[in-house]
Write a structure and sequence with these properties.
The structure is a homodimer. Chain A is mainly α. Chain A contains 15 helices and two strands. Chain A has a two-stranded antiparallel sheet.
């Protein structure tokens, strides 16, 4: 990561962490155990990519990024809930995440399911509070909620997760199954949808014009897919220690870009997507610097 | 159920079912399997109590109930997601719900978790679409989202579920554990919170004044708690076949009103709560007829 981007991510990440601490401080009506389980995964060392994207998009469109921080936290809560549920024994059955025991390993399966449910629900509350504080119009507030719900739900991330489940054992699928098409669907929905929603949410908070929203969507879709292709490559060649998890994709015989296209072609596809994504940012000029840096980082990162 | 209430529930239920069919018709981007899993539990014969409350509250406050139907569906989706997750092996481990195999028994655990996640997320989208259609102000739209999220989340239903988990094996708890207090917390949060949120959501859609909202909240809290007390009683004395599930509370050694207070006292408490809830409806006059009928039904129902 470049020194500039590193400093940017650190300062923005600190804002997000401080706000997440406030949001998850636990109120008297809330059982302590669930707050502990939610906090455990929220503060387990995530990169804060999605919340940083919310704030960067808001800034691009002329809003002080601090004013978007609660919505930024909402997107991080949704991302974290998805990881908690993905790691469950009935899903990917992972014991480790970012080098630490997964939520259900520490708090048990029942609490992990509820911690995910709690985070997902809380995300909509945090975004609503943010919209009210900015005195957004009814139309913008509803749009914000719809964008987040669609990115996270059956049309987005949940849909991608389902497609991922369905593709298991893909080598034994019949002739109608197109592994390349299926994999693009999985990555676009499982990863790119929430990244795109993060950018759109930031832009909506800033009252961005439709063309700006459209461009941020295009950027999000491109870097989201590139991010996942890069992840597939890293899963094969990356240092397992740096990734902090077992190289489980190969073991599970999962569909990956590395497997379908090979390492070299996968890298070329990711690079082309990054170029495409950056191109969409043109009208934002210098304000989009962090988004350009993030795009570059996605294909050069080592973990 | 009185003939009047029966006719009312049937006509309102039909509106809800028709709209749920539209909402869950499945779009090209959505994997068919998840739409099937979500639909299975949504159309598994629920009483539609929460959506009917949304529409009845809207009507009480002067809105055509048909204009609240998408939000009514949102509350039913949240209720259904909670049942799917509650039935999971890691939670209550139930094989039957309303006489039918539970979601995970039909679709597998992974899909059941995702179907719940999908319904919860979709609920916020449906409510946002409803708010936009009614051209609610930003403030009212945000308030609608907050009320639903709080009723469903850690401060509400999820919190109640956690307290319920924590109370397991309550007979072996140490001196600090107060079973009566714990049980009231569980019922108020696990059941009353979402019932109250349903009423508030309907009132917000109708642009109700704060005093009206407060009164509907009081009614919701009272009938929600009464509903659960009646459920505890039914679980002991009710015809198991009518309930469509095993009498699992006794087997699991769960905290129930019937066990802590006995059948007679539990019934008296439920009746007192119903009277209290109906009292709060006074200023609504004849418009609150269905809410009065529903309150009476809660303590006289046999399933």
């Amino acid at each position: 990561m470049s020194a500039t981007l590193d400093a940017y991510m650190t300062s923005r990440g600190a804002l997000v962490d401080a706000e997440l601490k406030v949001l998850l401080r636990g109120r008297s009506e809330e059982p302590k155990a669930i707050v502990a389980a939610m906090s455990y995964s929220i503060f387990a060392g995530g990169k804060r990519l999605r919340p940083v994207l919310v704030m960067a998009a808001a800034e691009c469109c002329g809003l002080n990024p601090r004013k978007a921080v609660k919505t930024a936290c909402a997107l991080e809560m949704i991302h974290t809930y998805s990881l908690i549920h993905d790691d469950l024994p009935a899903m990917d059955d992972d014991d480790l995440r970012r080098g630490k025991p997964t939520n259900h390993k520490v708090f048990g399966e029942a609490m992990a399911i509820l911690a995910g449910d709690g985070l997902l629900t809380y995300a909509f509350e945090a975004a609503a509070v943010n919209a009210a504080k900015l005195k957004l119009s009814g139309r913008a507030t509803a749009e914000l909620m719809k964008v987040i719900a669609r990115g996270a739900g059956v049309q987005g991330m949940v849909g991608g997760q389902v497609a991922d489940l369905e593709a298991e054992g893909w080598k034994k699928k019949n002739h109608g199954f197109n592994p390349k098409k299926a994999l693009e669907y999985i990555h676009l929905h499982k990863t790119a949808a929430l990244i795109t929603a993060s950018l759109e949410a930031g832009a909506i908070l800033a009252g961005a014009a439709p063309d700006r929203l459209r461009r941020l969507r295009a950027y999000g879709k491109a870097i989201g897919l590139a991010f996942q292709i890069a992840d597939d490559v890293l899963d094969v060649i990356g240092d397992k220690k740096k990734l902090g998890k077992r190289g489980s994709d190969a073991q599970n015989d999962k569909l990956t870009y590395a497997r379908l296209y090979g390492i070299a072609d996968s890298r070329a596809m990711a690079a082309a997507l990054i170029a495409e994504g950056r191109c969409a940012l043109k009208p934002f000029g210098a304000k989009a610097r962090p988004l350009h840096d993030l795009a570059n980082y996605i294909i050069t990162r080592e973990k």
